[in-house]
Amino acid sequence: MPARTLATLLADPGAALLLNRNAWTGVLAAARAEQLIGTLAMRLDGLALPQRVAAVLGDARATALEGRRQALWEAEMARRALAGVVEPVILLKGTAFAAAGLDAGQGRSIGDLDILVPRQRLSQAEAALIDAGWMWVKPDPYDDAYYRKWMHELPPLIHPERDRMIDVHHTILPLTARMKPDAARLIARAVPLGGGLAVLSPADMVVHAAIHLFGDGDLSGGLRNLWDIDRLLREFAEGDEAFWPTLWAFAADHEAQRVVARALRLAHVLFATPVPEMWTRAGAADAWYLQRLLARDGWGRETRPATRLAFYVRSHWLRMPPAMLARHLWIKWRMNRDGRPPPQQEGQ
Amino acid sequence: MRYVLGVRIGPVTFRIGSDWQGPIAQLRTLYRDYPRDDGVPDFSVRLTPRRPWRRWIRPAVMIEGDFVIPDAAPLPLDQGVLAAEMGMNLQMALGQRRFLLLHAAAVERNGRAIVLTGESGAGKSTLAALLQTRGWRLMADEFVLLDPASGLVHPFPRPVSLKNSAIDVVAEELTGAHWGPLMRDTPKGAIRHLVPAADALAAAERPARPVLLLFPRFGLPADQRGVGAGEAFVRLTQASTNYVVLGERGFTALTRFVGDVTRVAIDYPDADAAAAMIEKLW
């Protein structure tokens, strides 16, 4: 089972020495599909690997390093554009891990730039970015209005010269979602990095990762997000006894205890993450989540269509109340029927 | 996947999987003289139906793999070879990191290589194919691989994709060449793949030093002009799919390359005229 083997290798790089040729082929394809190939490359760096495998991973490592450089440059571009409007710029997800020098950023693929700004500064931030050359991606009035009314972020903006997207968040879940994270606390507790940038506090960073993985979206690309959580927990909990109580208190601030608990349990099961004992016992639906996270074969194809469909339905159920969901799906269906491309489901 | 072919082309290995037997059988014939490879591949390509039942009902081949573009149109099953070729191109264009990719053709003699670049339709594939009968080894048609470490050009002798009237022109000269199936109604008209000559496949892993960069244009009276290093540099950044992602390595490799080679734009009315100009230039 390639995705399971991938998880094993990430947690225990020494296991790489036992793999045969076919297993390697499957693991590398699964790692590419899950956007974990750069992470895997960094984890296995220095091991005596078969020549072909070493070559593929060497390329992945170079790609990840270049991706990291470009992501940090993009953060700097946003900082310059937002100077005087939003200071410091709070980075989220992959760019935050890289900028803060966290283990979770080692080899991680980084897509869009995600930043968090106070809601009352949102329109000024948008104007400043447009002024600096960013442009709207979604030309459709329904999509645009939907974002502005219900989403936790501005409609995505792209910088055409650098071909990079920015997601400007004012909170970390859609306003229609059942959980209500406290964006003001996220911002108040953010940790400055110097150079006009900041990241969420350690416990908030874990809560955000857990919310992103289990409270929003259909878990596609979820293996990478759970790996982030493993790395963050190991790094933050090491030598800090106050970390676990703080994490639990912050999870409560954001109404996110359930998703945080699930993240801890699944990270423990899959990556042997050291967590307090109460989270070492599997929860009722954990096996089902695990099945979804590992639904990838040795050709990089998604498997288990029924499980995936169930999680897709679940993602919409979590995201909005039923009547609103029905209306949204109806409008989207009509847009698609009239020859418009279907909305892309992105892993990021 | 049900049907699989592993093949090595120059320094790159591919694993091509298909849910239909047809495309793999055609590929086995096309790649009959290439080394088989069942090791860990550099890239995987998948030829799959859009929906499970489309394997049988109105079969259409979706091109997938390690690297994909979101809304690529499927191809009819009898163009499975084309789908596989496009899939392999896509893996290279989006996934190749060891070499700087130049959208170009290359030929070699005595360890020295000529790189022919230019927009699609400028005639470089046809010219590269025809130079094979004029004392040149074909190194690459679609992608030239420039090694940032050594500055050498590595072969990537994929079958040459020839279109429409070029198919007959080349077939007339290269008698006895090995060809893929003729596909008449592709999105780009008729397409047929020409397997490079035996010497090209035998030397598929032998790099060469680039000495001449040509920007050929077919169908014009014979003419030539020098091209500045700056212009060549800019045109090649546009002709490279991985220049940006290679970062500084790509910049260093390309500046070195344009500095090392003689750079000439040539207009030519036919292959003989082009061959004569090349003999003088290199």
UniProtKB/TrEMBL annotation, chain A:
<protein>
    <recommendedName>
        <fullName>Nucleotidyltransferase</fullName>
    </recommendedName>
</protein>
<dbReference type="Pfam" id="PF14907">
    <property type="entry name" value="NTP_transf_5"/>
</dbReference>
<dbReference type="InterPro" id="IPR039498">
    <property type="entry name" value="NTP_transf_5"/>
</dbReference>
From TrEMBL, chain B:
<dbReference type="InterPro" id="IPR027417">
    <property type="entry name" value="P-loop_NTPase"/>
</dbReference>
<dbReference type="InterPro" id="IPR025662">
    <property type="entry name" value="Sigma_54_int_dom_ATP-bd_1"/>
</dbReference>
<dbReference type="InterPro" id="IPR027600">
    <property type="entry name" value="HprK-rel_A"/>
</dbReference>
<protein>
    <recommendedName>
        <fullName>HPr kinase/phosphorylase</fullName>
    </recommendedName>
</protein>
